[in-house]
């Protein structure tokens, strides 16, 4: 892997992957804690409409996809707040319609030559240096906003009513969080694609949640796990000529499976200790 870094495209891929893991670790932790996985999936897939618009009109991909994803995210956030009974249905419809709009616009684009697979499953090996600068800027804005409103987000995530009593603008923070999710999705699409983006945003935080005792610890461990999964997936893709996005997610899935096995082993060990202590107490009493 080290010798492969002599190639610029692999250095760009590694930088994009590490940047994505940093952002996903922070935003993904908030998604998992606030139970926003389904809504985030809707934002991710509706963002494909922005990609279609960019190709149809010949606009730059990142600004167009970001604005489209932000608009879709704001609508979904409003629906989830004001129409809770129908929120899942409407978000599901927007999820499908966004993808359909994107595919049809790409079909109608003159000189159709777009590789759909690169957006559905990612193309981290083809991220140019110019987009790395934009990704870094967007990532810095997201992380800066989360750092600025961290205490309020922490209150909102664990006790929304208490946060409101303390004067925290819960609704405004909710829109801010969903907007950050939309921008994160656009950044991470380059790494693992639309289909797999939610896995990268939820698997590391889901593992980290079990072994940490605070939101900050969960974010840090999620970032480290994301970096480990992305480097491992890139190595596998380079060694065995695999699709990089799918390789990264399979490494993450293997990590998730190992965490379940560790949990199961610890549970069995605790039960054995409890049984031994119970039998010892019974023997002492007799």
From TrEMBL:
Transmembrane segments: 12-33, 53-77, 89-106, 135-153, 173-203, 215-238, 244-262
Keyword Transport: yes
Classification via SUPFAM superfamilies: ABC transporter involved in vitamin B12 uptake, BtuC
Keyword tags: Membrane, Transmembrane, Transmembrane helix, Transport
InterPro entries per UniProt: ABC_BtuC-like, ABC_TroCD
Membrane topology recorded in Swiss-Prot or TrEMBL: Multi-pass membrane protein
Location of the protein in the cell: Cell membrane; Membrane
Protein family (similarity comment): Belongs to the ABC-3 integral membrane protein family.
Protein name (database record): Membrane protein
